[in-house]
Amino acid sequence: MITESVIKNIIDEKLEADEMFLVELAVKPGNKIIVVVDNDNGVPISYCIELSKFIEASLNRDEEDFELEVASAGIGQPFKVKRQYLKNIGRTVEVLTAEGKKFSGKLLSVQDESFTVEVEEMVKVEGKKRKELQVKTVNCNFEEVKQVKDIISF
Asked: Mind listing the pLDDT tens digit for each residue in 35-72?
């Protein structure tokens, strides 16, 4: 049976040598293998093809048939590994908390258990008629966040 650990052993060294990192690895019923990779500078389709051929060459279809899907982490998709947070420092992200609160801001830093986002919001200031733009930093624990994704702005 093809397992995630078998696939991980096959690709770990190659990903490291190619300065890529694993975002998702799953082996679903019927031996459907899903591999999602990323890189700090993005992943070209040609690399996905190369990795797919590398994995296929390492497995034997005569012993066990499988379906293989290799992809790059999509723009606007939720982050799944810490390295994606590190890659997006300085960019605008959208955060959805476990309580359902949604906000966006600039990802400032990433720590072991949390990350910090700079948020701009209009706040009513006492004694003034108009709301004023204020900037605050929000520290979020990974455990308290449902999802975080990058926001593309043009």
From this structure: 999 999 889 999 999 999 999 999 998 889 999 999 99
Confidence of residue 153 (pLDDT cuts 50, 70, 90): confident
Residues 68 and 86 in one domain: no
**E strand or H helix at 17:** helix 4-17
Phi-psi region of 5 (alpha: psi -120 to 50; beta: other; left: phi over 0): alpha
Residue 98 structural domain: 82-150
Stated pTM of the model: 0.83
Per DSSP, the three-state class of 49 is: helix
Q: What stretches of 18-151 show up as alpha helix (H) in DSSP?
A: 45-58, 82-87
Q: How many domains in the chain?
A: 2
Neighbouring CB atoms inside 10 A of 24's CB total: 14
